[in-house]
Amino acid sequence: MATARLTPKLVLCGLSLAFAMLVIQASQAAAPQDAILGTWLTEDGQSKVDVVSDKAADGSTIYSGKVSWLKEPTRDGEPVHDAKNENAALRDRPILGLEILSGFKSTGPATWAGGELYAPRNGKSFPAVLTLT
After folding, report:
1. What is the pLDDT of residues 6-57, one digit of tens each?
2. 12: which residues sit within 8 A by CB, 6+ positions away?
3. Which of 10, 43, 56, 75 stands 20 to 30 A from 114 (CA)?
4. Is residue 117 within 8 Å of 125, Cβ to Cβ?
């Protein structure tokens, strides 16, 4: 029966594998904050929002989202506009491409807070917390 011996080469190989596993685990642990990235269908199925990340001035990651698809993108042959915006100067903006999520930061597993949600249906912005369920 042969006996296994630890040689310096085997020890280095084992340490390299252990380090690689730590790097993989660390990158997987960091991934949940980005779980919000991508294209999301709104609850009512009337629109889709593309959520992206960017770097804030302090180096932290912030998340925002723009309307990328509308079930009914036109009304009377014209693009749907932000007609109910409280600011009359912004009422001609098309909804398609409009940023409706801004300034969110990851605050825990599957939670983002500190940002605002803009609701074109009533033209108002609200502080919000986003949670994946």
Report:
1. 444 333 333 333 333 333 333 344 448 999 999 999 999 999 999 999 999 9
2. none
3. 43
4. yes
Token representation of residue 17: 């594998």
Burial (CB count <10 Å: 0-12, 13-18, 19+), residue 103? middle
CA distance 123 to 103: 18
**Helix or strand holding residue 12 (H, E):** helix 8-30
**In this structure, what DSSP letter does residue 34 have?**
G
Phi, psi of 56 (to 5 degrees): -80, 170
Reported pTM: 0.74
Residue 84 has a pLDDT of: 97
Helix (H) or strand (E) holding 15: helix 8-30
Chain centre distance of CA 62: 8
Rg (CA), the chain: 23
- Residue 29: phi, psi to the nearest 5? -65, -30
Do the strands 124-131 and 78-79 form a parallel or antiparallel pair, or are they unpaired? unpaired
